[in-house]
Specification:
- It comes from Streptomyces demainii.
- Residues 593-795 form the Xylulose 5-phosphate/Fructose 6-phosphate phosphoketolase C-terminal domain.
- Residues 16-376 form the Xylulose 5-phosphate/Fructose 6-phosphate phosphoketolase N-terminal domain.
- GO terms for molecular function: fructose-6-phosphate phosphoketolase activity; phosphoketolase activity.
- The chain is an alpha/beta fold.
- Helix content is 36%, strand content 13%.
- The strands form 6 sheets. It has a 6-stranded parallel sheet, with helices on both faces. Strands 13-10-14-15-17-16 form a 6-stranded parallel sheet, with helices on both faces.
- 56% of the residues are buried.
């Protein structure tokens, strides 16, 4: 299909003058409401002259972007109503919260969610007072804002969220306002490539609206200063056809914006019809609107002799001294009255009919579309029984499987069973096969809209596995997908999931807040599968060794975060089945992809995962009612193997030592019950770990995390944790645990050193352990492989 020419919206648009005036009235009303939220504590309709006591004591919020956002909101409403479109908007400049709140108050959706903020003078007063005020609402577009799926506090993620929302939503249009400051971030720059993965047959459409108002907080923006031909070349290079709207005269801009939106929506409809009805497979070149309006448009032109409108000074609060400076107060009143509020609101503060003439109704309103409250649309996944995928375990440690490969079979079945409903996706940065999940390709291909070569494998225009070498983009896609009512899984190398640390912060905050809002329905959890983990990155080396994402997540809201370390294939299946059923959580699962011993059969795995932490009686040597001499605990697959190997050594060489073996799957079980919903009571914890016996804990990650989680426990003075301590390199698998003192020989030495009465009578055993470590060092340097006694080890029982 030939590319459409770039055109500029112009007064040639066919809207009649009365409709343009209605759009302008709505826009002026939204601007008035936005400014009022930033400044006014009382006197919302200016029924009396402004006084200092009408002004908030702290002026917070962002005016500069609000007029542009209001313009987009106004014009999207018109095209949605006129064409009966199913549409949502992602507001990238989320700090422009006053604008989006104003739009949802005007369309009535805000008052439906919050009846006390009614669409009248009293409700307007509450709308103004609550903004950025104690006990009120944040200054950003937040979960409290109807119609939003995007916080926008941290910039960079709007376009990825928009594409995630459009995936598998063929009837949905997702407009996305991208601020020119946000456009400078790496994640946003990478997100322009998302159109190479959007399927015009099964997915909806994304309409980027690049808003160039010229400035960030204190500096010009890069894209706003590019010459237009260069900017057009950039956007065309990304695969878009730009449509320009520019100006500062309201009626001319209204006509141009209306024309641009009509042109963009017409082109989107043509591209989708061509793909869906004519079978054209060429990747579409989607439209993008480039909107240039002044920063702080319609606000004060100058303050204290300095230019404000159209400069960086309009970014936040353009008149900061209103309560103290009489001239600022007069200037604010002139500004607010310039919108002619008496023409926009009746005597009771209700929007006049012409203000709402172009506003959609019902679920078509941007503040009420159910896609922006995805739990309304969410359906449970058709999860199969685990018996079909579980590995047989006649006795512990006799067989090996790759846990993630076993999981791949389950995920493939879920993918197959959602083929017609298309509400499950797996995302990852070029690692699905590397992470042993390639069974998914039996059910679907990898999403891809570009050219294919004969050497390519598993690429498909309608695929639901998504791979792109950008963790930011994977995360953004999945968040947008989940927040619009679908399910998914993010598979990633453990060390590199840190790239999305900030993004998961924002999502956790979103979920925590959403859980307190009854009208926000629960959405499917954000599920991470972290594999290719620290202990088996011996081949890639130090740069690929970092287990700290778990620490990062466990710092966050306990009602939202969960962390699981299944020790084998069957426990991984049970954990996966659980997390795919959960709602409103961030679940982190760390599991290996290399061959791993099978410890538990399916029934045992189910029981163990339900407990979250428990004793493996078959691995220990304690008998009778007395407490053990020592507790060997493990969390993670490699630590579990080392603990069991250490338990086997103790069984052979110190059979009179009563050893208890404890395995932890759910790390939050270590927390006190009052600190986390999964936490153990004091009685539960003491029964498992004892109150005063030495506990040698082999942990997958950084050892101080276990200390932090359990510092209030009675046994904590007797707790000794081994884990990763940044001693990594390219080496053998066993040398990784030796370098970090997590190996079986060191664990036995710890038992001898910390168990009362063993230091003297077990001195020979301790020396033997030290000698084994010495032999290990010499062996790997000569042979390049691990000691045979390690490489060929299995559980003797």
């Amino acid at each position: 299909m030939p590319d459409a020419p770039t055109t500029t919206g112009s007064p040639g648009s066919g809207l009649a003058d009365d409709r343009i005036r209605a759009l302008d009235a709505h826009w002026r009303a939204a601007n008035y409401l936005a400014a009022g939220q930033i400044y006014l504590l009382a006197n919302p309709l200016l029924t009396e002259p402004l006084r200092p006591d009408h002004i908030k004591p702290r002026l917070l919020g962002h005016w500069g972007t609000s007029p542009g956002l209001n313009l987009v909101h106004t014009h999207l409403g018109r095209v949605i109503k006129e064409r009966d479109l199913d549409a949502i908007c992602v507001w990238g400049p989320g700090h422009g919260g006053p604008a989006v709140l104003a739009g949802s108050w005007l369309d009535g959706s805000y008052s439906e969610v919050y009846p006390d903020v009614s669409r009248d003078a009293a409700g307007m007063a509450r709308l103004f007072r609550q903004f950025s005020f104690p006990g009120g609402v944040p200054s950003h577009v937040a979960p409290e804002t109807p119609g939003s799926i995007h916080e926008g506090g941290e910039l960079g993620y709007s376009l990825a969220h928009a594409y995630g929302a459009a995936l598998d939503n063929p009837g949905l249009l997702v407009a996305c306002v991208i601020g020119d400051g946000e456009a400078e971030t790496g994640p946003l720059a990478g997100s322009w490539h998302a159109n190479k993965f959007l399927d015009p047959v099964h997915d909806g459409a994304v309409l980027p609206i690049l808003h160039l108002n010229g400035y960030k907080i204190a500096n010009p923006t890069v894209l706003a200063r590019l010459p237009r031909p260069e900017l057009d070349e950039l956007l065309r290079g990304y695969g878009h056809e730009p449509i320009h709207v520019a100006g500062d005269e309201p009626f001319e801009v209204h006509r141009a914006m209306a024309h641009a939106l009509d042109q963009a929506v017409d082109r989107i409809a043509l591209l989708q019809r061509t793909a869906r009805e004519e079978g054209v497979a060429q990747r579409p070149r989607w439209p993008v609107i480039v909107l240039r309006t002044p920063k702080g448009w319609t606000g004060p032109e100058e303050v204290d002799g300095l230019p404000v409108e159209g400069t960086w000074r309009a970014h936040q609060v353009p008149l900061p001294g209103v309560r103290e400076n009489p001239e600022h107060l007069r200037q604010l009143e002139r500004w607010l009255r310039s919108y002619r509020p008496e023409e926009l609101f009746d005597g009771d503060g209700r929007p006049r009919p012409h203000v709402l003439a172009e506003v959609p109704e019902g679920d078509r309103r941007l503040g009420a579309n159910p896609h922006a409250n995805g739990g309304l649309l969410l359906r449970s996944l058709p999860l199969p029984g685990l018996e079909r995928y579980a590995v047989p375990v006649d006795k512990p440690g006799a067989t090996l499987h790759e846990p993630t490969r076993v999981l791949g079979g389950l995920l493939a079945k879920v993918m197959e069973d959602t083929d017609t409903r298309r509400d499950f996706r797996v995302v990852g940065p070029d690692e699905t096969a590397s992470n042993r999940l390639e069974a998914l390709y039996q059910a679907t291909g990898k999403a891809w809209q570009e050219a294919t070569l004969p050497t390519d494998e598993h690429l498909g225009r309608h695929g639901r596995v998504m791979e792109v070498l950008s963790e930011h983009l994977c995360q953004g896609w999945l968040e947008g997908y989940l927040l619009t009512g679908r399910h998914g899984l993010f598979s990633c190398y453990e060390a590199f999931v840190h790239i999305v640390d900030s993004m998961v912060n924002q999502h956790i905050k979103w979920l925590k807040t959403s859980r307190s809002l009854p009208w926000r329905r629960p959405v499917a959890s954000l599920n991470y599968l972290l594999t290719s983990h620290v202990w088996r990155q011996d081949h890639n080396g130090f740069s690929h060794q970092d287990p700290g994402f778990v620490d990062h997540v466990l710092n966050k809201s306990p009602e939202v975060v969960r962390v699981y370390l299944p020790p084998d294939a069957n426990t991984l299946l049970c954990v996966a089945d659980h997390i795919l059923r959960t709602r409103d959580y961030v679940n982190v699962v760390v599991a290996g992809k290399q061959p791993c011993f099978d410890w538990l059969d399916l029934d045992q795995a189910r029981a163990h995962c339900a407990r979250g932490a428990g004793t493996w009686d078959w691995a220990g040597t304690e008998t009778g009612a007395r407490e053990p001499d020592v507790v060997l605990a493990a969390a993670g697959d490699v630590p579990t193997q080392e603990v069991l190997a250490a338990a086997g050594i103790l069984r052979r060489h110190l059979p009179d030592v009563a050893v208890r073996v404890v395995n932890v799957v759910d790390m939050t079980r270590l927390l006190p019950k009052e600190e986390h919903p999964h936490g153990m009571t004091e009685h539960e914890f003491d029964a498992l770990f004892t109150r005063d016996r030495p506990v040698i804990f082999a942990y997958h990650g950084y050892p101080w995390l276990v200390h932090r989680l359990s510092y209030r426990r009675a046994v904590h003075p007797h707790l000794h944790v081994r884990g990763y301590k940044e001693a990594g390199t390219t080496t053998t698998p066993f040398d990784m645990v030796v370098r970090n003192d997590l190996d079986r020989y060191r664990l036995v030495m710890d038992v001898i050193d910390r168990t009362p009465g063993l230091a003297v009578r077990a001195a020979a055993v301790r020396q033997r352990m030290q000698d084994a470590r010495t032999r290990h060092h010499a062996w790997i340097r000569e042979h390049g492989t691990d000691l045979p006694e390690v490489a060929e080890w299995s559980w003797a029982g």
